[in-house]
Design a protein that fits this description.
This protein is mainly beta. It has one domain (28-204). The protein has 2 helices and 12 strands. The chain has helices at 3-20, 122-128; strands at 30-42, 46-48, 54-57, 63-73, 78-89, 92-93, 104-112, 116-120, 142-150, 155-165, 190-199, 202-204. The strands form 2 sheets. Strands 1, 4, 5, 6, 7, 8, 9, 10, 11 and 12 form a 10-stranded antiparallel sheet that branches. A two-stranded antiparallel sheet has the order 2-3. It starts with a helix and ends with a strand.
Length: 205
């Protein structure tokens, strides 16, 4: 056998082996986003001790808090799942160390086409956590995480706002700053802050 024939035979054999080797399957991946939320009205600066007594610092200062979580799908059609974890429930610490808590309520799925968006506010987050609505009043303080998971990478943005009445005597039973007579929609003596955070996802193994 000539050297040229031997070379061609060896090359064809190597090519045959390459073609018969099964391709390595692409591993499924999941992107997970843990978004902090602070919702509701904290009526006092006093916290709750480990024994359940009132005292010490509260988890956040007196004020009314809201969280808006925006989700944008820049990729192919995908399905996301969402679940809520409560660390503070109606002003009471349920996940303070050494306590550890898991998801509250239900896990829901939502289909998101390419280039579509949705959002979750405090009303939806509390509903997801199994908390009934509060008709006519602002709920107590709820703090935790909204967990969003997807096989595709998402753009997740959280918007946090907080309000406090500079004159606490203007705070009615609803827990909101009261508007002066004849000026609906404008709160009296209210200070407000806003913060926008881009949430980075983690690729799960």
């Amino acid at each position: 056998m000539s050297r040229k024939t031997l070379f061609l035979t060896t090359l064809l054999a190597a090519l045959a082996v390459t073609l018969t080797v099964a391709p390595t399957p692409v591993e499924a991946q999941t992107y997970s986003y843990a978004v902090k939320f602070v919702c509701g009205f904290n009526r006092t600066n006093l916290g709750i001790t480990e024994d359940g007594d009132v005292g010490g610092e509260n988890v956040v200062k007196l004020g009314n808090y809201a969280t808006d979580i925006n989700i944008f799908n820049p990729s192919n059609d995908t399905e996301i799942t969402k679940k809520a974890i409560l660390l503070v429930k109606d002003g009471k610490p349920v996940g303070r160390e050494p306590k550890v808590v898991g998801p509250s309520g239900e896990t829901v799925s939502l289909g998101m086409p390419f280039c579509s968006a949705t959002y979750d506010d405090c009303n939806e987050i509390l509903r997801l956590a199994g908390i009934p609505p509060f008709p006519g009043v602002v709920p107590g303080l709820f703090i935790g995480f909204l967990i969003i998971q997807s096989p595709n990478e998402l753009d997740v943005t959280a918007v946090y706002t907080a309000e406090i009445c500079t004159d606490q005597s203007a705070t009615g039973g609803t827990g909101m700053c009261q508007s002066p007579p004849g000026t609906p929609g404008f709160a009296s003596g209210a200070g407000i802050s806003i913060d926008v955070e881009q949430i980075q996802g983690k690729k799960l193994p």
